[in-house]
Amino acid sequence: MDLLEHQARELFADHGIEVPRAEITDSPKEARGIARRLGGRVVVKAQVKTGGRGKAGGVELAADPAAAELTARRILGMDIKGHRVDTVMLAEPVDIESEFYVSYVLDRADGRFLAIASAEGGTEIEEVAAARPEAVARIPVDPAEGVTTVVAARIADAAGLPPQTVDTLVRLWQVLTREDALLVEVNPLVRTRQGRILALDGKVTLDDNARFRQARWGDQEPPRGDPLEAAAAARGLNYVKLDGEVGVIGNGAGLVMSTLDVVAGCGARPANFLDIGGGASAQVMADGLSVVLSDPAVKSVFVNVFGGITACDAVADGIVRALETVHLTKPLVVRLDGNNAVRGRAVLDARAHPLVQQATTMDGAARRAADLAHAG
Amino acid sequence: MAVYLTQKSKVLVQGMTGAEGMKHTRRMLAAGTDVVGGVNPRKAGRTGDFGDRRVPVFGTVRDAVEATGADVTVVFVPPAFARAAVTEAADAGIGLAVVITEGIPVHDTVAFCAYAAERGTRIIGPNCPGLITPGQANAGIIPADITKPGRIGLVSKSGTLTYQLMHELRDIGFSTCVGIGGDPVVGTTHIDCLAAFQKDPDTELIVLIGEIGGDAEERAAAYVREYVTKPVVGYIAGFTAPEGRTMGHAGAIVSGSSGTAQAKKEALEAAGVHVGGTPTETARLVLARLESGTRRHS
Prior knowledge:
The complex is a heterodimer of chains A (376) and B (298). In chain A, 37% of the residues lie in helices and 26% in strands. Chain A is an alpha+beta fold and 376 residues long. In chain A, helix 11 (312-325) runs parallel beside helix 12 (341-351). In chain B, helix 3 (79-91) packs parallel to helix 4 (106-118), helix 6 packs parallel to helix 7 and helix 7 runs parallel beside helix 8 (261-270). Chain B has helices at 19-30, 61-68, 79-91, 106-118, 159-168, 190-199, 216-227, 261-270, 279-297, and strands spanning 10-14, 34-39, 47-50, 53-58, 72-75, 96-99, 122-124, 130-133, 137-140, 149-156, 174-179, 205-211, 232-237, 274-276. In chain B, the strands form two sheets. Chain B has a seven-stranded mixed sheet with strand order 3-4-2-1-5-6-7, with helices on both faces.
């Protein structure tokens, strides 16, 4: 789960990293009051989980409380790369002397976290890395050792950061490990003319797998903009809404991704990703079908199951029972293969629902579902 | 021969006494695996009963290793306990730990992979179906009855795509199939398996299945170009996945322009790997490569 800037800022502050004074609001009127409290001049920043806010007009300096209200009114409700701005953060302006970049990111290939640091902060690090790779230090962190003061000093030295940043580098590692984050990034980390080191903007991605031991974020479901995704999440389904017209239900993440591709290869567009997993009980099948069928864009549904551990006759039973509770309004193409496939197909044949068709191969079934979607 | 797992492997099951552990231990035994023990500190001294086969339960991995000579462990414990379980197995000198558990925090995986590597323990997984050497042994949850022993080696991030290919190519059969798992960090990579299959005299052709996220497939392609002389056939899932969304597997995510299926396919093809457009087409490419190989040799 990605955090918003103000949530990241809060985490940094909790771990002793200095941040500018700031408050958030969803109301322009309140923005005026906040600006007054912060001393009049403030930076108004859109709170959205995407980069490029500045270029999109989502970050602006307001000279006084009245201007802050006007600016907040303009930024609230803005659309930045498909993300609607529901909240703005107002922060005291900072007298910047120099800007740095620091982050800890997961290096998947190496199976370790990597410290990335540069004395050229403030812009996209990818741009710095592309233009002047020698300006970006990349240092793998030994997971058993972590970032101690000695390690942090090595990182700062390699990147040409001033020694005062060592403390921040150590504390940022504590944010990463204690909060179970997969990414922490501060850009820019600044030194003020008064010599203070401040985290001016930050990005944090938390590990969803660690929810069970992170009391603070454990209850917070990632917000889902799409109502179908919200409905699926409420039923515990692994569902992602897409833009097409062929609903897809399958077992196993890899097979479902593959199914989307095969549908696309037949000239149709998949309407969703839905993995019902290994066990695929009748209840899960019914829940999955009802979510997919409630998508008005769906014209046909492709159920693609390979029975590995799951027997196909059990899956077929699940579909038949699901048909008792779900009112089927769109054609369903079912492909059962693998363990007990013959018996599974017989179960569906016996049910003989007029809208349910069977196909023996994945490619053939995808073609059928695509044709039905185009006909519908 | 096969890779990593043979009929000689003595297999432990950590978390055997749970529902999943019991179910899959039964299946592993049925596939001919020499399951020599389970581990559960609260049930030491008891047995798990599987028809006529009684499998002893030990309190610690070390006790189990001393009593049975186990060299492989299959880990079914819940995510919160996985790190301790793997650490314990590495401390006991287990050579191969197959971690089936899904949902392990990445920091734990990073920690136990580093710990195991220092002690010479290979990790397969986490969040994986395990591996099978058909006709010899099965360590994990891969169905044993959908294929037979043969000359194809398979490495995959995905369980069900593995099963699909095993089934489509059941008439040829497999030396070993390794499900390396769909998490962002895994203990054994495509490259490790390519190297093992290249060395394995029983493997004639290698099937490599990948999916969106990370650059493991690109790295595997570079490895193939440099070191693999056996034919490799590939398949990549996730061409239609939108950017920034996790597709089922924790590691299956396209971030910006990195981790796309297209880039992986192109990298593999540039290394001489034939990449199928669908699983079925991939199976056909395998058959074609095997046939042309046979013709060349005759």
